[in-house]
């Protein structure tokens, strides 16, 4: 199993969500996050200049079976891509175990229902 964390533009969240659903990734968490990037610019709103070095993004967190890693990463990359600086990052990390609290199932089966088994 792997944990995939993606930091994407807030404006691309709906596109990424739809792309994940299209490849049968139906469960994930997401968070509004802020970070610091290389891009520095100032915005002017009603004559007042604001520092925008703190960038608002959305972080998506997904745990998937090893066989679903590549299609999940590709779905995120395709949907989140604009070709401009600030498209985001994807991180893939190993997961040692998963446990479904309700049934005490462990491993891959804890991620999905048995009837969804491929």
How would you describe this protein?
The chain has 118 residues and is of the alpha+beta class. It has a single domain (2-116), classed as 2-Layer Sandwich (Alpha-Beta Plaits). Helix content is 19%, strand content 36%. The chain has helices spanning 13-22, 69-80; strands spanning 2-9, 29-36, 42-45, 48-51, 54-64, 88-94. A hairpin with a 2-residue loop joins strand 3 (42-45) and strand 4. The protein starts with a strand and ends in a 24-residue tail after the last strand. The model has no long low-confidence stretch (mean pLDDT 88).
Instruction: State the order of secondary-structure elements, H for helix, E for strand.
Output: EHEEEEHE
CATH domain topology: Alpha-Beta Plaits
Please tell me the overall pLDDT.
88
Tell me the number of helical segments per DSSP (H or I, 4 or more residues long). Answer: 2
CATH architecture term: 2-Layer Sandwich
Instruction: Enumerate the strands of the largest sheet in spatial order, edge to edge or round the barrel.
Output: 2-5-1-6
**Residues in helix, %:** 10-25%
Class from secondary-structure proportions: alpha+beta
Uncertain spans, ≥5 residues at pLDDT below 50? Answer: none
Main beta sheet strand tally, sense and closure = 4 strands, antiparallel
Strand content: 35-45%
* CATH class category label: Alpha Beta
| E-strand count | 6
Shape: elongated
Total tally of structural domains: 1
Cα-to-Cα separation, first versus last residue:
16 Å
- Rg over C-alpha atoms, rounded to the nearest angstrom: 17 Å
